[in-house]
Amino acid sequence: DQILLKFENIRKKTTGIYTTITDGYDAGVMKKRLTTFVEKNQPIMFVLPAFPFKSNNDRKKVIQNKLPDMAEYIAIENLHNFLVSVQECYPPGARLCVVSDGRV
Fold first, then answer.
1. Residue 104: helix, strand or coil by DSSP?
2. How far is CA 80 from CA 11, 74, 94, in A?
3. CA 64 to CA 17: how far, in whole Å?
4. Nearest Cα to 14, choosing from 6, 22, 3, 4?
5. pLDDT reported for residue 40
6. pLDDT digits (tens, 9 = 90+) for 13-47
7. What ranges make up the beta strands (E) of 1-104?
8. Helix and strand numbers, DSSP H then E, in the chain
9. Full-model pTM
10. Fewer CB within 10 Å: N-end or C-end of the chain?
11. CA 88/CA 12 separation, integer angstroms
12. At how many degrees (to 10) do helices 2-10 and 70-89 cross?
């Protein structure tokens, strides 16, 4: 239950008219998936589709840098902190696989 709560706290929260739109998240399904790892005392594996490649078009880009920008850095830092917090309450910890539709 602690891991599920940590996961729910890191999820993007919406307000206003968007609160009626569902993203398909189901806490019961997530708890069942977490349980399969916990029962085997294995690290929890998360997969995140994210971080598409940066555009090669440097004429229209505001930031002409191939390195992560501040928003990407903060997102990665938040994910790292989430993984650390999981390990604090579940010693086998968690692993994250980032899947991108481009070069990372």
1. coil
2. 14, 10, 10
3. 35
4. 22
5. 97
6. 656 555 545 566 788 888 999 999 999 999 999 99
7. 44-49, 94-99
8. 3, 2
9. 0.73
10. N
11. 22
12. 170
pLDDT digits (tens, 9 = 90+) for 43-100: 999 998 876 666 665 565 555 566 777 878 888 898 999 999 999 999 999 999 988 7
Contact partners, residue 78, CB within 8 Å, separation at least 6: 10
3 state DSSP class of 6: helix
In the prediction, which pLDDT does 39 show? Answer: 96
Contacts of 86 (CB under 8 A, 6+ apart): 3, 6, 44, 93, 94
DSSP state of 95: E
- Residues β-bridged to residue 45: 95
Residue with tokens 């349980």: 35
Please say whether the beta carbons of 80 and 93 come within 8 A: no
Q: Give one word for 51, left, alpha or beta, with left for phi > 0 and alpha for psi -120 to 50.
A: left
N-to-C CA span, the chain? 33
